[in-house]
Amino acid sequence: MQKGWSQDFTFSQFYAAPLHINPAMIGFSEAPRVTLNARDQLTSFNHAYVTVAASYDQYFYDIRSAVGLSVVGDRAGDLLNTYWVSGYYSYQLPLSSSVRCHFGVQGSWSQQNIDFSQMVYPDQIDLIGGLENPINTSELPLNETNIDYVDFAAGALFYSSTFYLGAAVEHLNTPVLDYTGSGDPGNVLNLKYNFQIGGNFFLGGNSTFGDQFYISPNLLFESQGPYNQINGGLYAGKKNIYAGTWLRHTFRNSDALILLLGVRSGVFKIGYSYDITISG
Predict the structure, then answer these.
(1) Cβ distance 258 to 277 under 8 Å?
(2) Strands 33-41 and 214-224
């Protein structure tokens, strides 16, 4: 029997999807924040990987706490679909006059399902005709095609007006994803570790995002099971326009160059990124 391994989804604009990399990254705006994210990967393969997410978070000054809620849908081909509903809580702890710390936790309910009719086993492939006339498989149907599970994560974030540094651990309870009923201990969601660092710097001194030119470097390191990945780069902007570039590196190869262009107006901020594959 052969095994396959994979890792959780990651948005290329990870800095614009804070709830999905660290539960401590909530409650950083003066008012409630609503975020919408969408990813469409491998479009030439009938939009093989599509992920959409919506989130809300808000800080409450009187209790130094923030709460959040997110809903995520992830489709891997026509085969595997996963949905999450997550709740968040974080507490702010002042460390000095300029440095704060957020401690955050996340609890999720998830459902994952497999469309067995879309699965193709090796013994179904005609060596001459390919899949034009698939052969009936001798494999037994899956024991389960729908799995519901709960999931937990925790994180911390240190920050000031110009920088942030954070870390998070996801899948603390390593949920079991056993479709075959084999009891294989490897059928679990591996722990996922995230480390983030970044900042906002204004030329000519600190300010709000206004007329001054600013740069925002940021880096995300992720590790899950046998996989490690770094997304590093920066964006810069002035007034209503910003743009940036990042490199996604998976240690074994430099995977993609990420380009970003965005606009902001009042409380609204919209960005579009495109991944240019540079690996073989």
Answers:
(1) no
(2) unpaired
The overall average pLDDT reported for the chain is 88
Q: Is the distance from CB of 93 to CB of 117 less than 8 angstroms? A: no
Per the structure block, which two tokens stand in for 227?
């996989």
Residue with tokens 């999931």: 151
- 3-state class of 122 per DSSP? helix
Examine the pLDDT at 185 and tell me if it is beyond 80. no
- Among the listed residues 111, 73, 72, the one whose alpha carbon sits nearest the alpha carbon of residue 88: 72
Q: How many CA atoms lie within 13 A of 38 on its CB side?
A: 5
28/17 Cα distance (integer angstroms)? 13
Q: Which two tokens stand for residue 199?
A: 């900042």
Closest by Cα among 66, 21, 26, 68 to 196: 21
Helices and strands (H, E) in the chain, number of each type: 0, 14
Token pair 């540079």 in the structure block, residue: 278
Q: CA–CA separation, 186 vs 75, rounded Å? A: 22
How confident is residue 130, by pLDDT bands cut at 50, 70 and 90? low
Q: Apex CA 9: angle with CA 232 and CA 270, to 5°?
A: 65
